[in-house]
Amino acid sequence: MTLPLEGVRVVEFAAYAAGPMVGKYLANFGATVVHVESRTRPDGLRTNYPPFKDNRPDPDAAGWFAFCNDTKYSVTLNLKHPRARPVAERLVRWADVLIENYAPGVMARLGLGYEAVRAHNPRIVYLSSCNMGQTGPRAAQKGFGSQLTSQAGFTHLTGDPKDEPMLLFGPYIDFVAVGFGLVAVLAGLDYSRRTGRGVYIDLSQYEAGVHFVLPAVLDYEANGRILQRAGNRSPHAAPHGVYPCRGEDRWCAIAVEEDAQWQALCRVAGHPEWAADPRFDTATARKQHEEELDALVEGWTRQQEAGQLAEALQAAGVPAAPVQRTSELFADPQLRHRDTWRQLAHPVLGSFHYLAPPFSLSESPARVSRSPLVGEHNNWFYREVLELSEEEVEELEAEGVLR
Amino acid sequence: MVREASGLLASYRVLDLTDEAGWFCGRLLGDLGADVVKVEPPGGDPGRWRGPFYRDEPHPERSLPWLAYNANKRGITLALESPRGRELFARLVARADFVVESYPPGFLEDLGVGYPQLREHNPRLVWVSVTPFGRTGPRSRWRGPDLVVMAASGLLHLVGSPDGPPLRVSLPQAPLWGSLYAAAGALVAHVYRQRTGRGQLVDVSAQASLLSALANAPAYCSLFGKDLRRAGNHMVGRNVHGARVRAVYRCRDGYINFILYSGEAGRHSNAALVRWMEECGALPETLRGRDWEAFDVVTATQEEIDELEQAIAAFLAERTKAEFTEEALRRGILGYPVADPRDIREDPQLEARGFWEPVYHPGLEATLHYPRGFARFSNGAAGIRRPAPRVGEHNVEVYGELGLSPEDVERLRAEGVV
Question: How far apart are CA B140 and CA B205, in angstroms?
Answer without folding.
Answer: 9
